Amino acid sequence: MPTTVRELLLELGIAELAAGRPVHEVEAAVCRVGAALGAPDVRSAATPTGIFVSLGGSESVGFASVGPMLRFDQAARVEALTGALLAGELDAEAGLTELRAVRAMPPRLRRSLVALALLPQAAGVALVLQPTVASALAATAAALVVAGLDLVADRAQVLRVLTPVLAAFAAGCLVFAAARLDLLDAPLRTALAPIAVLLPGALIVTGMSEVTAGAMVAGAARLAFGAVQVLLLSFGLFLAARVVGIGPDELANTRLDDLGVLATVAGVLLVGVGVYVHLSAPPGALPWLLLVLIVTAVVQAIGQEAGGPVLGGFVGGVAAAFTAAVVNRLPHGPPQLAIFLPAFWLLVPGSLGVLSATELAAHASTGFATVTAAIAAIIAIALGVLVGSAVGASRR
Fold first, then answer.
1. Do 64 and 11 contact (CB within 8 A), yes or no?
2. Which contiguous run of DSSP H or E holds residue 348?
3. Is the pTM of this model over 0.85?
4. Transmembrane stretches, by residue range (predicted)?
5. Which residue stretches of 245-260 are H helix?
């Protein structure tokens, strides 16, 4: 029996890590489940790539490494399973069987449909970042190229590693070429929309949360990985600008708005639908996912209007974390993680990082100021998430 409990806790730990939860939350969940199963002295130590678990005392330590990331429908099953274990509805053996079944779950949607979900995401992000018709059309066309690369990368691991650079380069070439032909203005924000799926926004916020919670090794590792992703995407865009012949002045971080507030609302809805399909969110989660996205976007916009990007990032983080926690507590509410993470695909961390790095390469003085603003906004969002999560947890 102790061996089965330890094996279950290891499987549960790597499943929650593969679902994207911070390491300190995974460690706490593993210890709580262990106590519910009759092992109150469980000790655990998690990293982004694996977890160590011991039942305490003189018991041996087990280790399991994280496999492929879980889809959102799988993450929902893991969270429901954790709740069942804590409530005593499952024993260790039944829980272990269920966890393995979750890992083996086939995708609900065809791979080609999942890739094509990048199109509404790109159009939605374009309507938020650069609300013009030309921007939305160019971003959608570029997203079709990125979707093709995503499908091809499934067949070759080397292409999967190079996907950030290749996708940014391909999307950048198409968008910048449209700008050279005077089909759109201020193309940098438009070029970002098709590669939004590759932005490490949630990764960066999770890393900041871990650092703030004292999990410095895990947090620093996530932040470093997120920074590398940002640099790869920025390099692809900068290389595309050089190839097409876009000058530094045309790479300025300029926002145009021809369509008004309704375009932003439509953009948020498109992002929600695209994320729902692309990440295979659990059935019934779409309305709640859209609610969290809309609340987060509205609160962040109000905060930005009142006090700039830093205040907007902070209150947006609070709103996203708190709303997700409240929805999660409703009867049959979706998992908090599945409706919380998509909000950060739309917000500042990844977007400002790519914009600032690309602008820094093109125009050093302006880019440096944008980098400073990006760092401040990322810290504000991370603190907002911590506050929102703490308030949500305190109301349980």
1. yes
2. helix 348-362
3. no
4. 135-152, 159-179, 191-211, 223-247, 259-279, 286-303, 309-327, 339-362, 368-393
5. none
State the Cα torsion 242-247-248-250 to the nearest 10°. Answer: -120
**Residues near 18 by beta carbon (within 8 Å), at least 6 away in sequence:** 66, 67, 68, 69, 70
pLDDT digits (tens, 9 = 90+) for 278-306: 878 777 888 888 888 888 888 888 887 88
The DSSP call for residue 326 is H
51 bridge partner residues: 46, 64
Pair of tokens at residue 34:
């262990």
In angstroms, the CA 389 to CA 374 distance is: 22
Q: CB atoms < 10 A from the CB of 334, how many?
A: 26
Confidence of residue 137 (pLDDT cuts 50, 70, 90): very high
CA pair distance 113, 115, nearest whole angstrom: 5
What's the chain's average pLDDT? 82
Can you state the angle between helices 348-362 and 309-328, rounded to 10 degrees? 150
Q: Is 44 exposed, middle or buried (0-12, 13-18, 19+ CB in 10 A)?
A: buried
For residue 386, what is the enclosing H or E element?
helix 364-394
Q: Are 355 and 377 in contact (CB under 8 A)?
A: no
pLDDT digits (tens, 9 = 90+) for 25-57: 899 999 999 999 888 889 999 999 999 999 877
**Helical packing angle, 309-328 and 286-307, nearest 10°:** 150
The label of the residue with tokens 């709740």 reads 83
